[in-house]
TrEMBL record:
<dbReference type="GO" id="GO:0004571">
    <property type="term" value="F:mannosyl-oligosaccharide 1,2-alpha-mannosidase activity"/>
</dbReference>
<dbReference type="InterPro" id="IPR050749">
    <property type="entry name" value="Glycosyl_Hydrolase_47"/>
</dbReference>
<dbReference type="InterPro" id="IPR012341">
    <property type="entry name" value="6hp_glycosidase-like_sf"/>
</dbReference>
<feature type="active site">
    <location>
        <position position="216"/>
    </location>
</feature>
<keyword id="KW-0479">Metal-binding</keyword>
<keyword id="KW-0812">Transmembrane</keyword>
<feature type="active site" description="Proton donor">
    <location>
        <position position="83"/>
    </location>
</feature>
<dbReference type="Pfam" id="PF01532">
    <property type="entry name" value="Glyco_hydro_47"/>
</dbReference>
<feature type="active site" description="Proton donor">
    <location>
        <position position="325"/>
    </location>
</feature>
<dbReference type="GO" id="GO:0005975">
    <property type="term" value="P:carbohydrate metabolic process"/>
</dbReference>
<comment type="pathway">
    <text>Protein modification; protein glycosylation.</text>
</comment>
<keyword id="KW-0106">Calcium</keyword>
<dbReference type="GO" id="GO:0000139">
    <property type="term" value="C:Golgi membrane"/>
</dbReference>
<keyword id="KW-0472">Membrane</keyword>
<dbReference type="GO" id="GO:0005509">
    <property type="term" value="F:calcium ion binding"/>
</dbReference>
<keyword id="KW-0326">Glycosidase</keyword>
<feature type="disulfide bond">
    <location>
        <begin position="279"/>
        <end position="311"/>
    </location>
</feature>
Amino acid sequence: ISLQMMKHAWDNYKRYAWGLNELKPISKQGHSSNLFGNIQGATIVDALDTLYIMEMKEEFKEAKEWVEKNLDFNVNAEISVFEVNIRFVGGLLSAYYLSGEEVFRKKAVELGEKLLPAFNTPTGIPWALLNIKSGIGRNWPWASGGSSILAEFGTLHLEFVHLSHLSGNPVFAEKVMNIRKVLNRLDKPEGLYPNYLNPSSGQWGQHHVSIGGLGDSFYEYLLKAWLMSDKTDEDGKKMYYDAVQAIETHLIRKSSGGLMYIAEWKGGLLEHKMGHLTCFAGGMFALGADGAPSDKTGHHIELGAEIARTCHESYDRTRMKLGPEAFRFDGGVEAIATRQNEKYYILRPEVIETYMYMWRLTHDPKYREWGWEAVEALEKHCRVDGGYSGIRDVYNNRESHDDVQQSFFLSETLKYLYLLFSEDDLLPFEHWVFNTEAHPLPVLHKDDGNKEENQS
Ligand code: DMJ
């Protein structure tokens, strides 16, 4: 089914928005998000590896031809360093490793070079936004005290290590290793990492801590950096397990109805809210179980299972059986959105992602059942004539569509569904780690002397 879903999403993108970043499936035209400046073709680059894995050969070929002829980084554009890295660099790297086609390697390295001026700050903590023509960077105007964002500068590591590996140029890996160093020098409140860090002073901004938006994939990349290094990156490993310890002590709570959740922390006070984005953590805890001290392995799997259950409840307690953007555990509710502006679902992958990890790591059939429920809900409420659309209120009887087919629906949501219903030997975890946009990157095995050997 996910293959047919991919075909519907892709065909409509192709028909109505070819070469543009995303599709508006209701108005049947292109959608441009300022996250990518005027770099074009986000959906194409994000979808390449999914097309490849699903063996949609014709579609992969036309996508590759578009990349060859049209993907152009010589544009005057202010882009989000994080978004361009996870979707474009990540998408190109995976396409290269899966297909071996040189064009993807070349474009990935070319784009990586364009991102380097973002690191020209006093500390080397990169800017959030960068003009890739002028090389001038800045931060989001809304970020506390001119800070860079943890989940943004902390989600470059995997891609940049691969850029050095594939280009022979150590500069990419040096930049992300320096981020680690800066973080390790800083005092952390209660062992937690605030979401805001000022790239000039090297000091934390507001003490907000989140495993959802603004924090999330920083933690994911610590664990995956260690896994991708064939378990040699001891620093990444230590930072990950120390962080999980602090998260358990200070953020993880159980509701009176028995649901485990991960709260947000604001200067020592808890906000009993969990984002859809936070639901990825179930999969992360389970993936990290193996590397935890042996008496804790079962415990980390259990954390993953509990978070998966809570996130499933957040879906099950809506009318449409699709989860809201954020749900709360206060004011007498559990796993339910209470504010109107938190009731939307924009085709996000995190819950299905966690089902996929839990399925692979436990083979408990309930994860496939829950995945199937999500498929049915997507088909019923999000599928429209012109593709797939997000929903404004998942508690309503009638769909109000937001008219955006997010590129991560093709790169992540549909890929994770496909993997959930595939055998474990498709992209096995011993050999691949998924970047935060679900782009698979190979584990760099200790005996990989050079890139030729790695390919073979
Ligand atoms: C994606 O771009 C990535 O999964 C990112 O880590 C978080 N946001 C979206 C999906 O929700």
